[in-house]
């Protein structure tokens, strides 16, 4: 009976031992699985962190590139604005210099030429204007009025008046009426105005053209 009881106890110990072995094996399996899951989570975390880092770096590069591009554009805008300001200033200075050169030329002529000399010069200018008018085609005078305004530095004589009336009437196609006005600022010569058509044969205008011509010549040399 004692032997039987011992045998039963041994069998029970074996069963318990096997159960412990099974539990240990299962526990090891669960620990290994948990370890693998943890490693997988760590790897996934690393990949996510890497992706976030790369995205952040890419965004940072884009920001830097955009900032550089914006800075470059801003610099170009500033340079262009400066160029425009400089060109405007240069144009204003040139215009001022031209005006001063014209005024200086006028003053020199006024002091150099006598009144009689300027009158003689006006006669010459009127002759030239009449010749120019005769060379123009009638089609260039699409005028609907017979009123002609004439500014002169010195009064026209009757011969000049008739010559101008004749050539203008011929070109316009009807008899014209001359409205004469004195303007000493012309120095010498005349300006003819028929509606919007203006023919400037004054010395002031010739000087203006000459100064502009000299300026262009200087640019080319």
What would you note in describing this structure?
With 221 residues, this protein is an alpha+beta fold. The chain folds into 2 domains: 1-112; 114-220, hypothetical protein PF0899 fold. Helices cover 75% and strands 11% of the residues. The chain has helices at residues 2-112, 115-135, 158-172, 203-220; strands at 147-152, 177-182, 189-194, 197-202. Strands 2-1-3-4 form a 4-stranded mixed β-sheet. Helix 1 packs across helix 4 and helix 2 (115-135) packs parallel to helix 3. The model has no long low-confidence stretch (mean pLDDT 76).
The count of DSSP E runs of length 2 or more, i.e. the number of strands, is: 4
**Oligomeric status of the shown chains?**
single chain
Q: Kindly name the structural category.
A: alpha+beta
Uncertain segments are: none
Could you give the order of the helices and strands?
Answer: HHEHEEEH
Largest sheet: 4 strands, mixed
Rg of Cα set: 52 Å
Strand order of the largest sheet: 2-1-3-4
Number of domains: 2
What gap, in angstroms, lies between the N and C termini?
139 Å
Morphology = rod-shaped
The tally of helices reads: 4
Mean pLDDT: 76
Notable characteristics:
221 residues; alpha+beta; hypothetical protein PF0899 fold; four-stranded mixed beta sheet; 4 helices; 75% helix; rod-shaped
